[in-house]
Amino acid sequence: MLQGRTRQYGMVIALVAIIILFQVLTGGLLLTPLNVTNLIMQNSYVLILAIGMMLVIITGHIDLSVGSVVAFTGAMSAIMLTSWGLPTIVVVPAALLLGALIGAWQGFWIAYVGVPAFIVTLAGMLVFRGATLAVLGGESIAPLPQSLRVIASGFLPGGSDGLHLPTLALGLAGAAVIVWIQWRSRARSRARDLPVTPAAATALGSVLVVAAIMAFTYVVADHNGLPLVGVLLIALIVGYAFVMRSTTMGRRVYAVGGSERAAALSGIRTKRTTFWVFVNMGVLSALAGLVFTARLNAATPGAGTMFELDAIAAAFIGGASAAGGVGSVLGAVIGALVMGVLNNGMSLIGLGVDWQQLIKGLVLLLAVAFDIYNKRRVGGAAPMLPGLRARPRGGPRQDAPARSSPENVATRSG
Q: Which residue has the higher pLDDT, 150 or 185?
């Protein structure tokens, strides 16, 4: 039980430790209301990309093009707003549709043609970076309309002097929903005679969740309230977590990543699942492009540089497996927060970019090594390459078709 908890909550503990460390090193600046609000706004696009990247990695693939898609969709949005004179209410869905088309283009080559995702998305990274330079002509487009900028810089309305009461109410409602889900899940498992967490441990977890959420909302409510992009992030996290945990689509994504052959034999349309995962990644890349462009108040040729690596790092730090079939939306969020707090904390204490890159690289390596260590300790097996499955020594391969035998023939005919 303890080993399972360590594996499940290891990165949460690491995130809390990093926050405490930088809170001390910065003399309390890290968790000031202004800085917490800036953390949300600065890392919003990475969180959006990390959610989509986690789904891609769960299926056993990778997407190297997201940074270039962010730049291209942001550039096209700026052109539609400034040169074409279209309203924001038209530009936003048009940009999301453009991202979906880009994802469909790449998903077609990966799912139906069989070209490796690494090659397709590497080509996409080059193509859409070049397309960004072409449509912008090597120049930036600025400023942008306030109707777009409010996406990244606006706040939840309804506030007044003092604490932002709508933010506190939203935090309290969210904490109540999460606690209800925890106890409901425990009750359903108990009704089905499945192993359940002791009531005392569940109660302690509920108290910690409520305390963490209310502390966060109190800090944010002390400075203008929750940013609108924070509301967007909450909606995405809750929606995608529900899809991956409680819907058929989510189970299909995990099945394809665990064993594509087994998923196909069980009746899952694996190609269609992979295709739609990349369409989803394209839409989220376009959304991240809108948020980043709105925050920057400009479309620039260099936008989105290295975003793909931030998203991939967040997914792996959050518990994704390179072999596919493992990972969660909440894990991706935690991984992105680890990277965001590291960036912000190191900037506050005055570390140079060179040391920041070095430390982030070591954190990524240690996080993956920690995950592999726990998997070996709990499961007794080392991680495998995609497409390989464990089999008993001297036994037949699990992915090999069974040989015909009189018993098998009799079983099938019966």
A: 150
